[in-house]
Amino acid sequence: MIEEENMFEHNQDRSSKLEMLKQASGQLDSNDPMLQYKAIRHIRGLSRERGDPLKWIHENHYYILDDVARKLHEKSSNNNDATIILESKLSLELLEPYLIDNGLSKNSELKCKNCQEVVDIEWNRCPQCGYNLKHDCCSECGKNLEPSWKFCPYCGAH
Question: What does pTM read for this prediction?
Answer without folding.
Answer: 0.56
